[in-house]
Specification:
With about 425 residues, the chain is α/β, with parallel strands linked by helices. It is about 25% helix and about 25% strand. It has helices at about 5-15, 20-30, 190-200, 235-250, 280-290, 300-305, 355-365, 385-390, 415-430; strands at about 35, 50-55, 60-65, 75-80, 85-95, 100-110, 120-130, 140-145, 175-180, 205-215, 220, 230, 260-265, 310-315, 315, 340-345, 370-375, 395-400, 405, 410-415. The strands form 4 sheets. Strands 1-2-3-13-4-14-18-16-17 form a 9-stranded mixed sheet, sandwiched between helices. A 5-stranded mixed sheet has the order 11-12-20-19-15. The chain is globular, with a radius of gyration of 22 Å. The model has no long low-confidence stretch (mean pLDDT about 95).
């Protein structure tokens, strides 16, 4: 197995939620010699230095300042740490007529609900603990790493038409089962006790939490030549891993431009948070980098942005062999055919002819095939990071991603060849 492929599978398994994905990115940056900075501190950056910032424990922004004047601009790859799924609500314990404990959950983003049934699920996320300073509580990450729950489907005997279509209630049908209770009174505070035991703290120390369900089935390769990747959260952790791998691999060369990897959170819910692409966080960081490198204010920063290029990396849809009619009739991206440029006439993506040409030239220089994704004209598509970021800065850039099947399923499919091609493309971009 290619080392980059093995690294991807390990990253997917160890990143069951946005918080752990960000922590794993930060750990990899630490190992590559990066220094963590705080937005609340003053910065003294060195050309060619290695730095990163973490926002809200779930977004990471790494940068290597260029060795030339800041006006040379930025080379940016951005992706996102979050994936659709289920978040656990406060006071989640629910008990019905039997002593079965369920948890009350809320759907996050747009998952394919049916794919979550009857799987071994676990819990991961962020837990906030009490300290002596109410303004500075302690944050701890938790990952149970073992099957704890399942969302049981109703037997076909109770719904004979289930295979003919069955609308689902997010509040009723999608609740996970956690335990068989000895006494219904045991339900009160059950989850907090479970989390506290896992963390080795008292339940009363826990002030709040952000907890997520995930499928415990490990990521794997399949196919006669192990050409396919099967895992949860391929969208968009595959692009996070590709960007991280390319950035660290490019550190053996100097660059006049500042190299940036931006891993945002909350793309799946519109990016409208302080750690999302609609916030000013990336602009603030880039402005501080430019100023620290000797920029002379807003004009210098505007010039730097004008000389920059961004790759907005969020996976795209491959031609599905069972639903070929869903794809655009003349643009048919295939698994294994290389990264896809994403184009939309109504500007859901930031790609235009100029930026697409730049990306194609980078792929050509990397020796990588490139494909095009355009929505079928009768099917509305989604948007991603690129066009949201251009509302903050007039960046020149392209929306792209590796092709995949079953986007937003509990279990998605991608191709090994496309991941390796994407890493090669990003590495070439960072080395320009």
């Amino acid at each position: 197995m290619n080392p980059s492929t093995a690294s991807l599978l390990e990253f997917l398994d160890n990143s069951p939620c946005n918080f752990l994905a960000a922590a794993n990115v930060a750990a990899a940056l630490d190992n590559a010699g990066f220094t963590r900075l705080l937005m609340s501190d003053s910065w003294a950056l060195e050309p060619g230095g290695r730095y990163y910032v973490v926002q809200n424990d779930s977004a990471v922004f790494a940068f290597v300042p260029g060795i030339a004047a800041p006006e040379y601009g930025f080379k940016i790859v951005c992706a996102h740490s979050d994936s659709p799924g289920f978040r656990i609500k406060p006071s989640p314990e629910m008990v019905g007529k039997s002593p079965i404990l369920k948890l009350n959950t809320e759907v996050y983003g747009g998952p394919i609900l049916y794919t979550w049934f009857d799987r071994p699920l676990s819990i991961s996320g962020r837990v906030i603990l009490r300290t002596d300073n109410p303004l500075r509580p302690e944050t701890r990450l938790v990952n149970f790493r073992r099957p704890l729950l399942t969302i049981p489907h109703l037997a076909i005997h109770y719904n004979r038409s289930v295979n003919e279509g069955n609308p689902l209630s997010r509040q009723k049908d999608m609740l996970p089962v956690l335990a068989i209770l000895r006494d219904k009174a045991e339900a009160d505070g059950y989850l907090l006790r479970l989390v506290a035991e896992e963390l080795g703290v008292a339940p009363e120390e826990i002030l709040d939490f952000d907890l997520t369900l995930y499928d415990t089935t490990p990521a794997c390769l399949f196919g006669p030549s192990e050409e396919f990747i099967s895992s949860g959260r391929i969208d968009d952790l595959e692009m996070v891993h590709a960007g991280l791998t390319a950035l660290t691999a490019s550190l053996d060369t100097d660059s006049a431009m500042t190299r940036v990897l931006a891993v945002f959170d909350n793309e799946e819910t519109g990016s409208g948070t302080k750690q999302g692409a609609a916030s000013p966080i990336l602009r603030d960081i880039l402005r501080r980098v430019a100023d620290s490198l000797g920029g002379d204010g807003e004009e210098s920063f505007i010039r730097a942005v004008a000389n920059s290029f961004m790759i907005s990396a969020d996976n795209g849809h491959a031609l599905h062999p069972n639903y070929e009619e869903k794809q655009d009739p003349t643009n048919l991206p295939a698994l294994g055919g290389g990264p896809v440029v994403k184009i939309n006439a109504n500007c859901k993506y930031m790609t235009d002819a100029d930026s697409a040409a730049v990306f194609r030239a980078i792929c050509q220089k990397a020796g990588v095939p490139v494909q095009t994704f355009v929505n079928h004209s009768d099917v509305a598509g989604g948007s991603t990071l690129g066009n949201i970021l251009t509302s903050q800065m007039p960046l020149r850039g392209v929306d792209m991603g590796a092709p995949q099947w079953a986007m937003h399923s509990c279990r998605e499919t991608a191709a090994v060849a496309d991941h390796l091609s994407t890493i090669a493309t990003f590495s070439t971009f960072y080395r320009l």
